[in-house]
From TrEMBL:
PANTHER family, per the entry: POLY-BETA-1,6-N-ACETYL-D-GLUCOSAMINE SYNTHASE (PTHR43630)
Domain of life: Bacteria
Protein name: Glycosyl transferase family 2
Organism (species): Flavilitoribacter nigricans (strain ATCC 23147 / DSM 23189 / NBRC 102662 / NCIMB 1420 / SS-2)
GO molecular-function term, one example from the UniProt record: glycosyltransferase activity
InterPro entries, A to Z: Glyco_trans_2-like, Nucleotide-diphossugar_trans
Keyword line: Glycosyltransferase, Membrane, Transferase, Transmembrane, Transmembrane helix
Pfam families assigned to the protein according to its UniProt record, in alphabetical order: Glycos_transf_2
TM helices/strands, residue ranges: 6-23, 307-327, 333-353, 365-384
Origin organism lineage: Bacteria, Pseudomonadati, Bacteroidota, Saprospiria, Saprospirales
Family, per entry: Belongs to the glycosyltransferase 2 family.
Domain Glycosyltransferase 2-like, first and last residues per copy: 49-186
């Protein structure tokens, strides 16, 4: 029995260490030893259809459209398709004004909620009526709160000279960070994700899912997202891999997003995304096992083990508790004490220190880690219960610096 609980303890611990520490370190070590040559300027720039679903984005939509219109990209090679998912604020009025001002903008105000994937599916159908789907017709799928730097689209589009490239993801950077709240922990985690995805793409062309806020895709690789799916970007990327396409990340294609400060808002957003993660885990289970191919190894290491993280945490706690209760061993007592401190004492200490105005990054990150895993656990139970629709409420938008 002691061997059983020790095995459980080591298995769950190794899985957590692998997905959060060993795998990122391994890929960084491998990528640093692989030379890379950035693509040269293309002879002609491919045509780009921008697809953007919006819902109640009056605070950011004008600035977003301005960044799209000011891109350093041939104006006659861009058309912008925007769908408003039955917005109830001033979003539609702002977009109507822009549509009248610039003929490249095609705006549709939907009279009922469709959800982001539903809007993107319908915008894609309209886009290919203007420009047929082909390897030379790109889609830029982006969110209203993500602002593109002027050279972002050019940096993304240049990679499609390689016929095997199907997706190129942008480099998401975060602004408006504050010492209090969750923003610095969120930025640290997402910055690590950017680097990890870049290394996956550099090594094997297996970047495991773009950041949905800004990425490009060959239009002939687009796959309509099912009506009840919550995470459209990951679904689209996995369908690309099924067809043999490659996905990479370009660190020079910069876009910016104001990161959230509020714990409750971020938990709500992550729980929704987590529900969609489990949808994709089941749908694409044939791509992560057996883990002998680069794609399978990356998918298993980067996503599957991380999505199963709450269960590994529960197993680790249960195994350490059982060892402490059932066996008279000094080391098991110290192990369980350390588990109690890590699982409960440090997150509670962060809450108490925060009320006193003290910000300690180390314990803030531990609390953030458990928030992520709690959101994953919540998403799992929502997935088990069943997802009937994919309509969404955007989190409170933080104002970007001018």
């Amino acid at each position: 029995m002691e061997i059983f609980f020790l095995s459980l303890l080591f298995f769950s611990g190794i899985c957590l260490v692998h997905t959060y520490w060993f795998y990122p370190k391994l890929l960084r070590w491998l990528a640093d030893r692989q030379p890379s040559t950035p693509p040269g300027p293309p002879e002609t720039m491919p045509f780009v259809s921008v697809l953007m679903a919006v819902y109640n984005e009056e605070k950011v939509i004008a600035r977003k459209i301005d960044t799209l219109l000011r891109l350093n990209y041939p104006a006659d090679q861009i058309r912008i398709f925007i769908g408003s998912d039955h917005s109830s604020d001033g979003t539609n009025d702002i977009l109507e004004t822009y549509q009248q001002r610039d003929p490249r903008i095609r705006f549709h105000a939907f009279s009922e909620r469709n959800g982001k994937p539903g809007i993107i599916n319908r915008l894609y159908e309209e886009a290919i009526r203007f420009e047929p789907a082909s390897k030379d017709h790109l889609l830029l799928i982006t969110d209203a709160n993500v602002m593109l730097e002027p050279d972002c689209l050019y940096s993304l589009a240049r990679h499609f000279q390689d016929p095997e490239i199907a997706i190129v993801d942008a480099h998401m950077q975060h602004v408006g960070l504050q010492a209090e709240g969750i923003s610095r922990s969120e930025d640290q985690y997402l910055s690590g994700e950017v680097q990890l995805k870049h290394h996956e793409g550099k090594l094997w062309g297996t970047m495991i899912g773009p950041f949905g806020g800004c990425y490009t895709l060959r239009s002939d690789y687009f796959s309509p997202v099912p009506s009840n799916f919550l995470v459209d970007d990951f679904y689209i990327a996995m369908r690309v891999f099924e067809r043999g396409g490659r996905a990479i990340n370009d660190l020079e294609a910069v876009c910016v997003e104001a990161v959230s400060h509020e714990w409750r808002e971020e938990y709500r957003r992550k729980a929704r995304i987590s529900t969609g993660n489990y949808q994709n885990l089941v749908t694409f289970r044939h791509l992560w096992w057996p883990p002998f191919r680069p794609l399978s190894f990356a998918f298993l290491s980067h996503k599957v083990l991380r999505w199963l993280g709450p269960f590994f945490l529960i197993l680790f706690f249960a195994a350490s508790l059982a060892l402490w209760l059932l066996f008279d061993n000094y080391y098991y007592s110290w192990l369980f004490l350390c588990v109690i401190v890590f699982y409960f004492a440090l997150p509670i200490l962060d809450i108490l220190l925060r009320r006193g105005g003290i910000q300690w990054r180390f314990i803030r990150n531990i609390r953030y880690f458990f928030l992520m895993n709690l959101a994953l656990l919540t998403g799992f139970f929502r997935f088990i219960k069943g997802v009937n629709n994919n309509v969404w409420e955007p989190p409170k938008r933080q104002q970007l610096p001018s």
